[in-house]
Design brief:
single chain; 400 residues; alpha/beta; Rossmann fold; eight-stranded mixed β-sheet; two-stranded antiparallel ribbon; 10 strands; S-adenosyl-L-methionine-dependent methyltransferase; methyltransferase activity
Length: 400
């Protein structure tokens, strides 16, 4: 594995705050990591089983520590790594011995190692305030739930775009890196890059996988027409200027390459009227719109993806919409399974999704937010409620 720190290469400097990890129930045991070094470009042996299979035991809420399994910062003791330098990344003298070329030693920028404690949740301090979801064990577990639900939704597929044997793949907002790792296993000859604001990646994924700590809203450092496929998922309320983001995608995807973007809508619906007009679940959509508007980043991006991708210049645009039930009320077996996971996703995720947005941008107190989420959980688990949310998946091709 190679870890690239683009922010450090740009010479950026952010404030630092040291905190301790936080976890909700169950009490995860978080052990500090011992410093370690990993050589850039080294082909690390990895098991034949997919990354999803290796991670699946942690999908159970009572499972082991996420922080102990992933490369997570614990305030101290973050592993040292050898990283790829940007100035040598795309030169003509790349080392044939590594799929990613020559390397130079670079220590992690100290600002990337620290976190702040806010409302009893842990947040990373790099680009502080740019992201609204915490960075702690419970929040990391939400990535696992979401990935598993997408796999179920897409009938065990990692994507819908008709790509075959891509040479270069990018996963924007990779999170814990589970999708990128599965794609790297699926296409062992491809270079797969996962980017995110904070490193929470698995320590030993496939050797053709590169993780980069970077802000996708900054200018991209890759050559034009570089990627065969760009994957985007769960970035709602994370990007202020979506047209600019899609332009970066368009400019850096090779002619004939694909973009695929998947987003949920944080609005709860029911087809049978089981959610009464005055039920608290109807507040989700209005609160999400208000909070994200004040935050300056649209959380209701899903219905607009197709239009914006078309406006960016992509063609052959295909949009699919799926239902994610909340709870096991559906008759359909697959939807029942998705609903089981989505219920856990919502029960564990409510505080993570609301605390920063409602306290900082809507004037709520932490206690008010927690009281509201407690009422929401009571409504969610009511068996009379047949709630669901919609998921939009859009893929499109860059013209030849």
């Amino acid at each position: 594995m190679i870890v690239q720190i683009n922010a450090a290469c740009r010479g950026e400097k952010e404030g630092t705050t040291t905190t301790t990890p936080w976890s909700l129930k169950p009490k995860d045991t978080v052990e500090p990591h011992e410093p370690q070094t990993q050589k850039c470009g080294t082909r690390i042996p990895h098991s034949v089983e997919s990354f999803t299979d290796r991670m699946f035991p942690l999908l159970v809420p009572s499972g082991g520590s996420i922080s102990g399994f992933l490369i997570g910062f614990q305030g101290t003791g973050f592993p040292g790594v050898q990283c790829k330098s940007l100035d040598s990344r795309y030169n003509d003298d790349e080392d044939a011995g590594s799929i990613f070329g020559d390397s130079s030693r670079m220590s992690l920028d100290s600002d990337l190692k620290h976190y702040r404690l806010e409302n009893d949740r842990r947040y990373h301090t790099y680009r502080d305030g740019e992201y609204w979801i915490p960075h702690d064990d419970e929040a990391l577990r939400l990535d696992l739930y979401a990935h598993h639900m997408f796999i179920l939704t897409l009938n065990n597929k990692l994507f819908l775009a008709p790509i075959n044997n891509p040479k270069r793949v990018m996963d924007v907002g990779t999170g814990i890196g589970i999708w990128a790792s599965d794609v790297a296993d699926k296409f062992p000859e491809a270079e797969v890059i996962g980017t995110d604001l904070s490193p929470t990646f698995r320590a030993t994924p496939a050797p053709n996988l590169l993780f980069e700590i970077d802000d996708c809203c900054s200018e991209w450092i890759y050559p034009p027409n570089h990627f065969d496929y760009v994957h985007v998922r769960f970035l709602y309320a994370s990007i202020a200027d979506w047209p600019a983001f899609y332009k970066e995608c368009f400019d850096h995807i090779a002619p004939g390459g694909y973009i695929e973007h998947s987003e949920p809508r944080p609005a709860l619906l029911s087809d049978d009227g089981s959610i009464a007009p005055g039920d608290i679940m109807h507040q989700c959509s209005d609160l999400a719109k208000e909070a994200s508007h004040n935050f300056g980043k649209n959380i209701m991006i899903a219905p607009h993806i197709k239009t914006m991708i078309e406006e960016a210049g992509f063609v052959n645009v295909v949009e699919k919409q799926y239902k994610w039930p909340i709870g096991e009320w559906p008759v359909d077996r697959k939807l029942k399974d998705i609903g089981r996971w989505n219920m856990q996703h919502w029960l564990e995720g409510l505080d993570a999704w609301t605390l920063r947005l409602l306290t900082q941008y809507c004037g709520w107190t932490s206690d008010e937010v927690k009281a509201w989420t407690a009422r929401m959980r009571t409504s969610l688990v009511d068996p009379k409620h047949h709630a669901y949310q919609t998921i939009n998946v859009v893929y499109a091709r860059k013209p030849l």
